[in-house]
Amino acid sequence: MSLSMATSPHTTLFRTRTTRFNPTSIKCTQDRVFNFAAGPATLPENVLLRAQSELYTWRASGMSIMEMSHRGKDFLSIIQKAESDLRALLQIPPEYSVLFLQGGATTQFAALPLNLLPSGGAADYVVTGSWSDKAVKEAKKFCKPNVIWSGKPEKYTKLPSFDDLEQNKDSGYLHICANETIHGVEFKDYPVSKSGVLVADMSSNFCSKPVDVSKFGVIYAGAQKNVGPSGVTIVIIKKDLIGEAQPITPVMLEYKIHDENHSLYNTPPCYGIYMCGLVFEDLLEQGGLEEVERKNRAKAQILYTAIDGSKGFYKCPVEKSVRSLMNVPFTLERTELEAEFIKEAAKEKMVQLKGHRSVGGMRASIYNAMPLPGVQKLVAFMKDFQAKHA
Q1: What residues are labeled active site?
Q2: Residue closest to 58 by CA, chosen among 207, 277, 314
Protein backbone atom coordinates (compact mmCIF):
# COMPACT_ATOMS: atom_id res chain seq x y z
CA MET A 1 0.00 0.00 0.00
CA SER A 2 1.41 3.38 -1.02
CA LEU A 3 2.06 5.96 1.66
CA SER A 4 0.50 8.48 -0.68
CA MET A 5 -2.88 7.20 0.48
CA ALA A 6 -2.37 9.35 3.58
CA THR A 7 -3.59 12.27 1.48
CA SER A 8 -6.64 10.48 0.06
CA PRO A 9 -10.14 12.00 0.42
CA HIS A 10 -11.01 9.32 2.97
CA THR A 11 -8.12 10.37 5.18
CA THR A 12 -9.12 14.01 4.88
CA LEU A 13 -12.63 13.11 5.99
CA PHE A 14 -11.23 11.16 8.94
CA ARG A 15 -9.13 14.11 9.99
CA THR A 16 -12.17 16.38 9.86
CA ARG A 17 -14.14 14.08 12.08
CA THR A 18 -11.40 13.85 14.68
CA THR A 19 -10.74 17.56 14.98
CA ARG A 20 -10.63 18.50 18.65
CA PHE A 21 -14.09 19.57 19.83
CA ASN A 22 -14.43 23.00 21.38
CA PRO A 23 -17.06 22.98 24.15
CA THR A 24 -17.41 26.77 24.01
CA SER A 25 -18.89 26.43 20.53
CA ILE A 26 -21.99 24.62 21.81
CA LYS A 27 -25.20 26.50 21.24
CA CYS A 28 -28.76 25.48 22.12
CA THR A 29 -30.64 24.76 18.92
CA GLN A 30 -34.21 25.76 18.24
CA ASP A 31 -35.38 22.28 17.22
CA ARG A 32 -35.81 21.03 20.80
CA VAL A 33 -39.35 20.17 21.84
CA PHE A 34 -41.09 20.17 25.20
CA ASN A 35 -41.07 16.45 25.91
CA PHE A 36 -43.84 15.37 28.30
CA ALA A 37 -42.96 11.66 28.05
CA ALA A 38 -43.29 9.46 31.13
CA GLY A 39 -39.91 7.88 30.50
CA PRO A 40 -37.36 7.93 29.08
CA ALA A 41 -38.02 11.53 29.91
CA THR A 42 -36.59 14.96 29.28
CA LEU A 43 -33.17 15.70 30.74
CA PRO A 44 -31.79 19.07 31.88
CA GLU A 45 -30.55 20.99 28.86
CA ASN A 46 -27.34 22.11 30.59
CA VAL A 47 -26.59 18.49 31.51
CA LEU A 48 -27.03 17.38 27.90
CA LEU A 49 -24.77 20.16 26.69
CA ARG A 50 -22.08 19.30 29.20
CA ALA A 51 -22.29 15.63 28.26
CA GLN A 52 -21.98 16.65 24.63
CA SER A 53 -18.81 18.61 25.38
CA GLU A 54 -17.30 15.62 27.20
CA LEU A 55 -18.49 12.91 24.83
CA TYR A 56 -15.41 12.60 22.63
CA THR A 57 -12.77 12.95 25.34
CA TRP A 58 -13.47 13.02 29.07
CA ARG A 59 -11.09 15.51 30.65
CA ALA A 60 -7.48 14.42 30.20
CA SER A 61 -8.23 10.71 29.78
CA GLY A 62 -7.85 10.74 26.02
CA MET A 63 -11.02 8.67 25.58
CA SER A 64 -14.77 8.75 25.91
CA ILE A 65 -16.42 7.47 29.09
CA MET A 66 -18.03 4.86 26.85
CA GLU A 67 -14.57 3.47 26.10
CA MET A 68 -12.88 3.48 29.48
CA SER A 69 -12.48 0.56 31.87
CA HIS A 70 -15.05 0.46 34.63
CA ARG A 71 -12.23 -0.53 36.99
CA GLY A 72 -9.92 2.30 36.00
CA LYS A 73 -9.28 5.32 38.20
CA ASP A 74 -11.16 7.67 35.86
CA PHE A 75 -14.45 5.81 36.03
CA LEU A 76 -13.98 5.11 39.73
CA SER A 77 -13.86 8.86 40.30
CA ILE A 78 -17.10 9.24 38.30
CA ILE A 79 -19.13 6.62 40.15
CA GLN A 80 -17.78 7.65 43.55
CA LYS A 81 -18.72 11.29 42.96
CA ALA A 82 -22.17 10.26 41.70
CA GLU A 83 -22.76 8.32 44.92
CA SER A 84 -21.39 11.12 47.09
CA ASP A 85 -23.63 13.71 45.44
CA LEU A 86 -26.69 11.46 45.72
CA ARG A 87 -25.95 10.93 49.41
CA ALA A 88 -25.75 14.69 49.85
CA LEU A 89 -29.00 15.28 47.95
CA LEU A 90 -31.04 12.78 49.95
CA GLN A 91 -28.99 13.04 53.16
CA ILE A 92 -28.58 9.27 53.08
CA PRO A 93 -27.42 7.96 56.46
CA PRO A 94 -24.11 6.06 56.56
CA GLU A 95 -25.87 2.83 57.55
CA TYR A 96 -27.35 2.63 54.04
CA SER A 97 -25.66 1.31 50.90
CA VAL A 98 -26.17 2.86 47.47
CA LEU A 99 -26.13 0.47 44.52
CA PHE A 100 -26.08 1.34 40.83
CA LEU A 101 -27.66 -1.64 39.09
CA GLN A 102 -29.24 -2.72 35.80
CA GLY A 103 -32.51 -4.30 34.75
CA GLY A 104 -34.91 -1.49 35.60
CA ALA A 105 -37.14 -1.25 38.64
CA THR A 106 -39.04 -4.25 37.26
CA THR A 107 -36.08 -6.51 38.07
CA GLN A 108 -36.32 -5.37 41.68
CA PHE A 109 -39.82 -6.85 41.88
CA ALA A 110 -38.05 -10.23 41.99
CA ALA A 111 -34.88 -9.16 43.77
CA LEU A 112 -36.73 -7.85 46.82
CA PRO A 113 -38.38 -11.08 48.01
CA LEU A 114 -35.30 -13.09 47.07
CA ASN A 115 -33.07 -10.88 49.22
CA LEU A 116 -35.37 -9.91 52.07
CA LEU A 117 -37.45 -13.03 52.73
CA PRO A 118 -36.78 -16.68 53.50
CA SER A 119 -38.14 -19.29 51.12
CA GLY A 120 -41.94 -19.28 51.45
CA GLY A 121 -41.90 -15.97 53.33
CA ALA A 122 -44.68 -13.38 53.19
CA ALA A 123 -44.80 -9.65 52.52
CA ASP A 124 -47.53 -6.99 52.47
CA TYR A 125 -48.26 -4.98 49.33
CA VAL A 126 -50.31 -1.83 48.81
CA VAL A 127 -51.59 -1.73 45.22
CA THR A 128 -52.20 1.82 44.05
CA GLY A 129 -51.73 1.42 40.30
CA SER A 130 -50.27 -0.60 37.47
CA TRP A 131 -46.71 -0.71 38.79
CA SER A 132 -47.50 -1.89 42.29
CA ASP A 133 -49.85 -4.46 40.73
CA LYS A 134 -46.99 -5.73 38.57
CA ALA A 135 -44.76 -5.89 41.64
CA VAL A 136 -47.26 -8.23 43.30
CA LYS A 137 -47.56 -10.48 40.27
CA GLU A 138 -43.78 -10.91 40.09
CA ALA A 139 -43.43 -11.42 43.83
CA LYS A 140 -45.88 -14.36 43.66
CA LYS A 141 -43.12 -16.37 42.00
CA PHE A 142 -40.83 -16.02 45.03
CA CYS A 143 -42.96 -15.36 48.13
CA LYS A 144 -46.48 -15.00 49.47
CA PRO A 145 -47.52 -11.40 48.80
CA ASN A 146 -50.53 -10.19 50.78
CA VAL A 147 -52.44 -7.38 49.06
CA ILE A 148 -53.64 -5.45 52.09
CA TRP A 149 -55.21 -2.63 50.06
CA SER A 150 -56.03 -2.11 46.40
CA GLY A 151 -57.24 1.00 44.59
CA LYS A 152 -58.46 -1.01 41.61
CA PRO A 153 -62.20 -0.69 42.46
CA GLU A 154 -61.81 3.12 42.26
CA LYS A 155 -59.68 2.82 39.09
CA TYR A 156 -56.55 3.81 41.03
CA THR A 157 -57.62 7.37 41.71
CA LYS A 158 -57.00 7.46 45.47
CA LEU A 159 -54.67 6.21 48.20
CA PRO A 160 -55.55 4.42 51.42
CA SER A 161 -55.82 5.83 54.88
CA PHE A 162 -52.89 4.38 56.78
CA ASP A 163 -55.31 3.31 59.52
CA ASP A 164 -56.98 1.03 56.96
CA LEU A 165 -53.83 -0.95 56.30
CA GLU A 166 -54.22 -4.22 58.18
CA GLN A 167 -50.66 -5.48 58.07
CA ASN A 168 -49.89 -9.13 58.71
CA LYS A 169 -47.76 -10.08 61.69
CA ASP A 170 -45.68 -12.52 59.64
CA SER A 171 -44.91 -10.00 56.91
CA GLY A 172 -41.22 -9.44 56.15
CA TYR A 173 -41.77 -6.00 54.63
CA LEU A 174 -44.42 -3.53 53.45
CA HIS A 175 -44.17 -2.53 49.78
CA ILE A 176 -45.56 0.65 48.22
CA CYS A 177 -45.14 2.51 44.94
CA ALA A 178 -44.45 6.10 46.00
CA ASN A 179 -45.74 7.56 42.73
CA GLU A 180 -47.76 5.70 40.13
CA THR A 181 -46.53 6.91 36.75
CA ILE A 182 -49.59 5.76 34.80
CA HIS A 183 -52.40 6.75 37.15
CA GLY A 184 -50.85 9.87 38.70
CA VAL A 185 -51.31 9.17 42.42
CA GLU A 186 -48.50 10.04 44.81
CA PHE A 187 -47.89 9.35 48.49
CA LYS A 188 -47.48 12.64 50.35
CA ASP A 189 -46.50 10.81 53.52
CA TYR A 190 -45.56 7.20 54.13
CA PRO A 191 -47.02 4.39 56.24
CA VAL A 192 -45.02 2.73 59.00
CA SER A 193 -44.28 -0.93 58.43
CA LYS A 194 -45.05 -3.13 61.43
CA SER A 195 -42.18 -5.36 60.33
CA GLY A 196 -39.85 -2.39 60.50
CA VAL A 197 -39.05 -2.65 56.78
CA LEU A 198 -40.79 -0.25 54.40
CA VAL A 199 -39.91 -0.76 50.73
CA ALA A 200 -40.72 1.88 48.10
CA ASP A 201 -40.57 1.96 44.34
CA MET A 202 -39.73 5.63 43.77
CA SER A 203 -39.00 5.40 40.07
CA SER A 204 -41.11 8.33 38.96
CA ASN A 205 -40.60 10.76 41.84
CA PHE A 206 -37.03 9.93 42.85
CA CYS A 207 -35.08 13.09 43.73
CA SER A 208 -38.11 15.28 43.05
CA LYS A 209 -38.42 16.27 46.72
CA PRO A 210 -36.73 15.63 50.07
CA VAL A 211 -37.27 12.17 51.54
CA ASP A 212 -36.44 10.88 55.01
CA VAL A 213 -34.47 7.83 53.94
CA SER A 214 -34.36 6.51 57.49
CA LYS A 215 -38.08 5.66 57.23
CA PHE A 216 -37.30 3.01 54.61
CA GLY A 217 -35.55 -0.32 54.47
CA VAL A 218 -35.22 -0.13 50.69
CA ILE A 219 -35.77 2.61 48.12
CA TYR A 220 -35.39 1.68 44.48
CA ALA A 221 -35.84 3.63 41.26
CA GLY A 222 -35.24 3.45 37.55
CA ALA A 223 -33.23 6.49 36.52
CA GLN A 224 -35.08 7.35 33.33
CA LYS A 225 -37.71 9.63 34.86
CA ASN A 226 -35.84 12.23 36.89
CA VAL A 227 -32.14 11.50 37.16
CA GLY A 228 -30.72 10.07 33.95
CA PRO A 229 -31.15 7.95 30.85
CA SER A 230 -32.60 4.46 30.86
CA GLY A 231 -30.29 1.64 31.86
CA VAL A 232 -29.48 2.57 35.46
CA THR A 233 -31.44 1.38 38.49
CA ILE A 234 -30.59 2.85 41.88
CA VAL A 235 -31.14 0.89 45.09
CA ILE A 236 -30.72 2.47 48.51
CA ILE A 237 -30.79 -0.25 51.15
CA LYS A 238 -30.17 -0.46 54.85
CA LYS A 239 -27.00 -2.46 55.34
CA ASP A 240 -28.45 -4.84 57.91
CA LEU A 241 -30.88 -6.11 55.25
CA ILE A 242 -28.01 -7.29 53.06
CA GLY A 243 -26.62 -10.80 53.21
CA GLU A 244 -29.62 -13.09 53.78
CA ALA A 245 -30.60 -13.84 50.18
CA GLN A 246 -32.29 -17.12 49.38
CA PRO A 247 -29.90 -19.76 47.95
CA ILE A 248 -31.73 -19.70 44.61
CA THR A 249 -31.05 -15.97 44.12
CA PRO A 250 -29.24 -15.35 40.82
CA VAL A 251 -25.88 -13.70 41.38
CA MET A 252 -26.93 -10.58 39.47
CA LEU A 253 -29.91 -10.10 41.79
CA GLU A 254 -28.05 -10.52 45.07
CA TYR A 255 -27.54 -7.23 46.90
CA LYS A 256 -24.56 -8.55 48.87
CA ILE A 257 -22.60 -9.22 45.68
CA HIS A 258 -23.14 -5.69 44.38
CA ASP A 259 -22.52 -4.08 47.74
CA GLU A 260 -19.23 -5.90 48.30
CA ASN A 261 -18.11 -4.95 44.81
CA HIS A 262 -19.24 -1.32 45.02
CA SER A 263 -21.62 -1.76 42.06
CA LEU A 264 -18.73 -3.04 39.93
CA TYR A 265 -19.23 -6.82 40.08
CA ASN A 266 -19.61 -6.79 36.30
CA THR A 267 -19.52 -3.96 33.78
CA PRO A 268 -22.16 -1.47 34.94
CA PRO A 269 -24.01 1.00 32.69
CA CYS A 270 -21.03 3.36 32.82
CA TYR A 271 -22.29 6.17 30.64
CA GLY A 272 -25.70 6.15 32.30
CA ILE A 273 -24.08 6.42 35.74
CA TYR A 274 -21.98 9.34 34.48
CA MET A 275 -25.17 11.06 33.26
CA CYS A 276 -26.87 10.48 36.62
CA GLY A 277 -23.86 12.04 38.28
CA LEU A 278 -24.21 15.15 36.14
CA VAL A 279 -27.89 15.39 37.10
CA PHE A 280 -27.12 14.98 40.81
CA GLU A 281 -24.55 17.75 40.53
CA ASP A 282 -27.07 19.96 38.75
CA LEU A 283 -29.73 19.36 41.43
CA LEU A 284 -27.25 20.33 44.13
CA GLU A 285 -26.35 23.49 42.23
CA GLN A 286 -30.04 24.39 42.05
CA GLY A 287 -30.12 24.47 45.85
CA GLY A 288 -30.96 20.87 46.67
CA LEU A 289 -34.24 18.99 46.79
CA GLU A 290 -36.11 21.59 48.84
CA GLU A 291 -35.69 24.04 45.98
CA VAL A 292 -36.42 21.35 43.39
CA GLU A 293 -39.68 20.50 45.16
CA ARG A 294 -40.67 24.17 45.25
CA LYS A 295 -40.26 24.40 41.49
CA ASN A 296 -42.15 21.16 40.94
CA ARG A 297 -45.05 22.34 43.09
CA ALA A 298 -45.27 25.58 41.14
CA LYS A 299 -45.39 23.75 37.80
CA ALA A 300 -47.99 21.26 38.98
CA GLN A 301 -50.20 23.98 40.48
CA ILE A 302 -50.30 25.84 37.18
CA LEU A 303 -51.37 22.73 35.29
CA TYR A 304 -53.91 21.44 37.82
CA THR A 305 -55.42 24.93 38.14
CA ALA A 306 -55.94 25.05 34.39
CA ILE A 307 -57.61 21.63 34.41
CA ASP A 308 -59.86 22.37 37.37
CA GLY A 309 -60.75 25.80 36.04
CA SER A 310 -61.84 24.57 32.62
CA LYS A 311 -65.48 24.04 33.72
CA GLY A 312 -65.29 20.35 32.91
CA PHE A 313 -63.69 20.63 29.47
CA TYR A 314 -60.62 18.96 31.01
CA LYS A 315 -60.83 16.55 33.92
CA CYS A 316 -58.25 14.94 36.19
CA PRO A 317 -59.71 11.78 37.76
CA VAL A 318 -57.30 11.68 40.72
CA GLU A 319 -58.40 12.70 44.20
CA LYS A 320 -56.93 16.16 44.79
CA SER A 321 -55.10 15.31 48.01
CA VAL A 322 -52.95 12.66 46.32
CA ARG A 323 -52.37 14.12 42.87
CA SER A 324 -48.87 13.55 41.59
CA LEU A 325 -46.47 16.43 41.08
CA MET A 326 -44.78 14.39 38.38
CA ASN A 327 -47.44 12.72 36.22
CA VAL A 328 -50.68 14.55 35.45
CA PRO A 329 -53.35 12.42 33.72
CA PHE A 330 -56.37 14.22 32.28
CA THR A 331 -59.19 13.64 29.84
CA LEU A 332 -61.33 15.74 27.57
CA GLU A 333 -65.05 16.03 28.16
CA ARG A 334 -65.44 15.26 24.44
CA THR A 335 -63.23 12.20 24.02
CA GLU A 336 -63.43 12.41 20.24
CA LEU A 337 -61.22 15.51 20.41
CA GLU A 338 -58.33 13.80 22.19
CA ALA A 339 -56.51 12.68 19.04
CA GLU A 340 -56.75 16.19 17.62
CA PHE A 341 -55.48 17.65 20.90
CA ILE A 342 -52.39 15.46 20.76
CA LYS A 343 -51.82 16.18 17.07
CA GLU A 344 -52.17 19.94 17.43
CA ALA A 345 -49.95 20.01 20.52
CA ALA A 346 -47.22 18.19 18.59
CA LYS A 347 -47.36 20.86 15.90
CA GLU A 348 -46.57 23.34 18.66
CA LYS A 349 -43.56 21.22 19.70
CA MET A 350 -45.21 19.66 22.74
CA VAL A 351 -44.89 15.91 22.41
CA GLN A 352 -45.64 12.60 24.18
CA LEU A 353 -48.91 13.81 25.70
CA LYS A 354 -50.89 10.69 24.88
CA GLY A 355 -52.02 8.81 27.98
CA HIS A 356 -50.91 5.26 28.70
CA ARG A 357 -52.69 2.71 26.53
CA SER A 358 -54.28 1.12 29.62
CA VAL A 359 -56.10 4.30 30.70
CA GLY A 360 -56.31 6.50 27.60
CA GLY A 361 -56.73 10.25 27.68
CA MET A 362 -53.69 12.47 28.07
CA ARG A 363 -50.79 12.56 30.49
CA ALA A 364 -48.29 15.34 31.02
CA SER A 365 -45.18 14.18 32.84
CA ILE A 366 -43.56 17.26 34.33
CA TYR A 367 -40.43 15.87 35.93
CA ASN A 368 -37.61 17.94 37.39
CA ALA A 369 -36.14 18.75 33.99
CA MET A 370 -39.39 20.04 32.47
CA PRO A 371 -38.88 23.81 32.54
CA LEU A 372 -41.60 26.15 33.73
CA PRO A 373 -42.03 27.64 30.21
CA GLY A 374 -42.96 24.15 28.97
CA VAL A 375 -45.87 23.92 31.42
CA GLN A 376 -46.89 27.49 30.72
CA LYS A 377 -46.95 26.81 27.00
CA LEU A 378 -49.05 23.67 27.52
CA VAL A 379 -51.57 25.57 29.65
CA ALA A 380 -51.82 28.36 27.07
CA PHE A 381 -52.40 25.76 24.36
CA MET A 382 -55.08 24.04 26.47
CA LYS A 383 -56.96 27.30 26.89
CA ASP A 384 -56.76 28.09 23.18
CA PHE A 385 -57.90 24.56 22.29
CA GLN A 386 -60.85 24.86 24.67
CA ALA A 387 -61.84 28.24 23.22
CA LYS A 388 -61.80 26.73 19.74
CA HIS A 389 -63.85 23.63 20.62
CA ALA A 390 -66.02 24.52 23.62
Answers
A1: 131, 201, 225
A2: 277
CATH topology (fold) of 73-285: Aspartate Aminotransferase; domain 2 (3.40.640)
CA dihedral 65→71→73→74, nearest 10 degrees, is 10
Residues paired with residue 238 on neighbouring β-strands, in sequence order? 96
pLDDT in tens, 125-184: 999 999 999 999 999 999 999 999 999 999 999 999 999 899 999 999 999 999 999 999
Strand partners of residue 201: 177, 220
pTM: predicted TM-score of the whole model, two decimal places = 0.92
**pLDDT tens digit sequence for 355-388:** 998 888 999 999 999 999 999 999 999 999 999 9
For residue 268, CA distances in Å to 8, 277, 279, 355 come to: 40, 14, 18, 32
- The whole-number pLDDT of residue 203 equals 98
Cα R_g (the chain), whole angstroms: 23
Q: Is the peptide bond before 40 cis (omega within 30 degrees of 0)?
A: yes
Q: Strand ranges (DSSP E) for 239-375?
A: 314-315, 327-332, 350-351, 362-365
Four-point Cα dihedral 264, 265, 270, 276, nearest 10:
-60
Q: What is the DSSP letter of 184?
A: -
| Contact between 286 and 201 (Cβ < 8 Å) | no
pLDDT at 30: 65
Does position 3 have pLDDT exceeding 70, yes or no? no
Nearest to 361 by CA among 386, 326, 334: 334
Q: Which tens digit of pLDDT belongs to each residue from 228-271?
A: 999 999 999 999 999 999 999 999 999 999 999 999 999 999 99
Q: Nearest 5 degrees, angle CA 99-CA 104-CA 107?
A: 90
In what helix (H) or strand (E) does residue 306 lie, and over which residues does it extend? helix 289-308
Query: For residue 175, what are the CA distances in angstroms to 38, 178, 372?
Result: 22, 9, 33
CATH pick for 289-389 out of 3.40.50.300, 3.90.600.10, 3.90.1150.10, 3.40.50.720: 3.90.1150.10
